[in-house]
Structure formats: C-alpha cells, structure tokens
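Fold this: C2 domain-containing protein
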Amino acid sequence: MAGTFMGGAPYGDETVALLDRVQTKDDFHAKRWRCLSHPTRAFETLSPVSILEIGILNARDLAEREAGFMRADTTSDAYVQVVLDDQELEKCITPVARGKKQPMWLYHCEVDILAPMSMLRLQVFDDQPTEKVEIGFVDICVGDIPYDQPIEGWFELRFQDNFQSTSVDRYLHHCEMREETVSQRELEEEMASLLIDPFPVGTDGSNASPDPNEKIVMKKQYFASSKERAMDAFQACVVSTADRAEEYGFQALSASLKEGTKDKYRSNNGELYVSLKLKNVVSSSDSLFALALDAPPPVNRGIRETTELKRTPDLQQCADEVWEVKVQLLDDALWCCLYGFKYLISWRCWPLSLLYLIGLLLCCYKSYWWWAIIPALLSVSLVINSFPEQRKKMTRGGLNADLTEEGFKHTAAWRNSDEIHTFVGRLLTEDMKARLDNPRVNSYKLRAFAAQCIRDGVPTVSLSELRLALMAAPFVVDADNVPTFALHEHVWVDGRDRGVITELTEVPERITVELQPTLLIPEKRAKVVHQRQLTKRGESIGNLPKWATDLVMSSAMVQIYPPLEGLRLGLVPAISAVSDILTWKNSKVATILLVVLIVISAVFTWAGLMHVLNSEQKGNMSHSQEVVILVLRSLDNSIAAIVTIVLFLCQAWWMTHFSALMKIMQRRGHKLLI
C-alpha cells in the first residue's frame, strides 16, 4: 500500500528500495583497506565484523520504588534497554515485567559490532505510570569478550548515582572494585578509625580517665552514622548465603533470607543474569583490520567523585570544583607568572632586572646566542625560586598573597595603591566576613583607607591593627558579626582547602579541621587553624527551592559538569606538577632541570665563543669542531624545520596508515579482564 511523505509526495516500493540502498553498508571484506586509509569513514560505512548475542534472562533483588499515595505496592515494573556506545538500540529492549519481584524476560537479541573496543550498557528501567526511572546499569567492554565462547552469570547492577564520567572510566573503575566491596571497605575503615583511643593523654603521659557519658554519646554517634553501611555489608553476606542455600536445594531457607533483607540496606541495586556470545562473521585476517577502528567518543556524564562512594553532584559540589580550578589556575599559576614578570620590568631587584635586560639585548643582537642566554636566565630564575621568601616577594601581591602578616608585607612592598586596595578588600570579605555599606558609594573610601596603610613599601600598622581599624570604619558593616561554627560542619580553610570541623575549643585559635581528599592530595589530613581562617562552605551558594535545584540539575548541570571535569582533570594536575618543580617541592626533578639548563647554556656559550674566535683567527679549529659548532648554531633553524615537517606529515595519508597499524599491533595483545 502506497503512502505519502510529510510534504505530500507519494512513496512506494521504489522509494523504499532506494532508501534501503542508501542505508546499506559496504561489505567489510571488499572494503577492508578503508580501515587503514580512512578509519572514521570505515566505522560509519562498513558492515559489522562480529555479532554479539545477548541473552537477558532474569533479575533478582532489584531496588524497589518508593511507596506513593495512590500505590502501596513498591514492586518495580522492570525492563532492560541495550545501549551500544551511548546509543540506545531501538530493537534491543525487553518487555516490561510488571509486578514481578524477580522479573524473568528470557529475552534474546543480536547486536552488530564493528569497533573492537565498543562499550555495551544494559540499563534497567522502572516503567512507572508518569515516567521511566533508572534502577541501575551494567557496563561491559566488548573487547573483553572472547570469540565463540559463551559467557553467562549474574552481573551486579550499579547504583544509578554512579552513572557519571564516561563509559570507559566507569567500566575500568568498576573492574577494580564492586559496589558491595566498596560498602564493606568503607565500614571497615570507619570501624578502624574508631578503634583509636579518642581520649586525651594526660600530662604524665597516661590516658585521661574517660567520661562514661562521653563514651555513650560517641557510641551513639558511631552507630547512627554506620548503621546503613553495616547493613550494606550484612545484606551482601545474607544474599551470598541465600544463593548458596538455593544451590544446595534449601529453597525455603533461601527465600526466607532474601525476604528478610530490607531494600533500604543494600550494597547494589540488584543483579542481572546475562548470557553473552561474540561470533565473528568475517575471516580472522579481516578481523585484524577492524582493530584499527575506534568507537565514537564516549559521552561524559559528569564528574566522577575521587572517593569510592559517589554522590549525586549538586550546586555546592560544582562550586567547590570551580574554586579548586580557580586556586590552582589563577592564584598559584597565572597570577604568580604575572607578578614575576612585573617584578622584573619594575626593577624591584635591579641586579636581576639588569641581568635579564642585557641577556635579552644580546639575543636580539645575535640570534645564535638564544640557546646560550635563555637557558642561563631560566636557571637563574630556578635558583631564586629555591628560596621561599624571595619567591613570595616576586610572585605574591594583592590578588594572591596570603591573608597573614607576611602576605601584608609582600603586598605593601609593591608600593601600589591598587595592590593594597585589593588585599584589604580580600581581608574584609574573606577574613573578617564583613562588607561595605553601599559598595558603589563607599568603594573610593575603602581605597583611600587602604592607600594610607603603607608608606615607602612598608605597612604603617600590623595586620591585627588593620582589622581593628576596619571594624571601626563607618563604611564597614557586619564587622563584629563573627560566624559561629558547629562540629562536623563543612568549611573552607584559607579559601583553598575543603575540610570538616572535627574538634571545637573555647580558644578560637585551636579549631581542628580534617582536610578532605582532593584531586592532588587523595588522603585525609588534620590541621589546627584559627577561626578566622574558616569560611562556611554552605554560604558560598544560597539555598534554592527543591524545584529550582532539580531544574538546574537536569539541564544546566549536564552542560556545566563535563567541561568543568575536563578542565579540572586536565589542567590542575599538570599545573600542580609544574609548580612543584619550579618551587622545588619536587627537588629531584628541579635539580635535573637546573643541570640540563646549565649544560645547554655552557655548550652553546662555548660554540658561540669559538665561532667568534674562529671568525677573527681562521684555521684554529679542527673539522669536527667546525661541524659541531655549525650544528649547534643551526639548531633553532633545524627545530623550526622539524616542527614544520611534522605539521605537514601528521595529516598525510601514509601517517593515517601508520597510526592504524600501530593500533592493530597494540590491540592484538589486549588482555581479557573477565
């Protein structure tokens, strides 16, 4: 029966045949060389090299839905959607098992596989009346499935909160540790931490007598915080025992154990029984060509927490990650470089500025002196950076100086009203937790106030006196509104480190904070700080209504988190590694770099001097010396030529062949993870 297009034009068998012809892919054997010449086009246009047979049989212990006002039954109406390389396969979806605590589908489907490292996801949904709710998921790498060897068994359904980062990262992370193992490890770590004697040591070296009431409170806090994790581990043991009982024929005992476990105490979101079999539909030689193909880049679903137990990302977490990038990228890198450059051109240290001026002028006079002078100047800067006090004088100012007496002096030494104005503004907001009354009108008053705080590069008052003066200033409000902190409250320390308050005393200078793991420092550590060094993390973002938070989470966060994660994971470690070398925290690499710079400078200085002497007195050098000098003098031109050649060769068709062959050799030795 003929139909019509949306525009009204008729279509029939000829049109359908034309559509099939357009969508039919080329035979892999006939066009296998396309994998080497145009890998991307090959993935898009060639027929599959293998077929993955998927059997989704049944599930057990699925997470139940929350009881609603109109529905008391919490049993989920589960079904499974097959996703390949983040693309949902419309023909691979199981029927809905309605009202089944142990749903059974006995579903079978086949998936075409072309890229050997494609990622498969089995996503379990709950088909609720108003929406489809994700229950859990399983990530599988096709490259870890052997050919023509059936694989079947129970696969752990991961918590949907862990559906973050990319499929590759999720899969590798889950291969290291299962969800239930994570819960068990967290429980053991918490119990081990509480086995440490929490009572203070007396002056005579003996433990102080514990207060019984304090002991009872501590136990209550421990059991309140660890009950859910303990039940997670307990349920894992119960489920394992129930499975063994079922294997040995004790059906009643198995059913009783499974029924007795509470859904809210779980170490995963259930298990899925799956059978897999990968069949090759081309010859073994043809399948080697397919090793050169890459699957589409995986979709980044947001930030994966550095801790093992992950949380759903929220506005506060996003702000924390942005602040971490800001501290590493701006305060410790960009501002330091700008202040170092300003230090030289403003002649703050005239011998150093004169040295750089003469060196750069010599480079302008004779280009071959670049390789002798630039490494020497860099080595001088590296040596100066080994002295912390001098380094801070060169790289710290109003934008990034510490809010301490030392930071105040470093800022004053610039003899610049803008710098001291910026420092005082930071002191007012970050340290004193105060603000200007009518900032638009009183901003100039704060600038005039700050300008009077220094004379000839030296502060006229101490930092504590500056705080008292600001508190008495008529244009400052809320200066005496000292924030109060509570135990276990989340705070910023010096505006840089995230922490949790673990101990409060009557003395504001003795607040113990446990600094949280970060991307650069993955372990927790304790620190005793002053009260004014703390800022409540919850105050950085105002409270939003739940509907607004949900709206942001579902739309804006999806756009914000992936690029933020890429920036954080890509730049922060690299910048920190370079900073550690330049500040001599990594003294070994810094020493090696210094030696290399000195050697380069010495070799090219010798070559330059020999060239000058040879031009005045010809014939004093051997042939080998002349060759070495010629090579060294031409090194900059040689490097420029190499860079040009590389730029042109990278896009050459034979380089594509070479890259494809390297991928084939690498992936041919891929080891199975299952």
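DSSP finds 22 helices and 20 strands in the chain. Residues 174 and 330 are 34 Å apart (CA to CA).
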